[in-house]
Specification:
Elements: E1 5-8, H1 14-25, H2 29-32, H3 43-48, E2 52-57, E3 60-70, E4 73-81, H4 90-104, E5 109-115, H5 119-127, E6 131-138, E7 141-149
Length: about 150
């Protein structure tokens, strides 16, 4: 695997993060008949709050993750990797990064959700140790919730 640096996002990453979100999530629009929520995230305020870390490879932003503590767990709200970088382990590195931070902060778990139309995620998260805990419809999206003890 290529060398990857994961670091907190800064203001100068905003355009690359927005572009990454659009590219990573646009394939789901036909499946969902609408743009997924991450395509409309307020990345500027998330960067300002320190909720986004980015993956850098060969000086290029190849992915990002949005996460934050919430009660006894960490919420992994959004993760995206540029389509041309899929399958190279960047997403796994970002998820494991969040898990390490959660564990180091003595939180008991990482929780996340995905849309049921994102079938790739429904099979990927269990392979990484996440357990499905709930399905519900929220703000027009059919979401599947997962949890992993850390």
């Amino acid at each position: 695997m290529p060398t990857i640096e994961i670091r907190p996002a800064c203001e100068t990453d905003l355009i690359d993060i927005q572009s990454c979100a659009r590219q990573a999530y646009e394939k789901y629009v036909p499946r969902m008949d609408r743009e997924p929520a991450p395509m409309h995230a307020d990345f500027e305020s998330l960067i300002a709050k320190g909720c986004i870390d980015v993956a850098i490879c060969e000086s290029l932003l190849v992915g990002y993750v949005v996460f934050y503590p919430e009660g006894s767990h960490f919420s992994l709200e959004n993760i995206a990797v540029l389509p041309e970088c899929n399958g190279r382990g960047f997403g796994r590195c970002l998820i494991e990064h969040v898990e390490r931070i959660a564990k180091d902060a003595r939180h008991e778990a990482v929780e996340l959700y995905t849309n049921e139309a994102m079938t790739e995620n429904l099979s990927m998260y269990p392979k990484m140790g996440y357990v499905e805990v709930e399905r519900r419809r929220e703000v027009g999206f059919n979401r599947v919730y997962f949890r992993k003890q850390v």
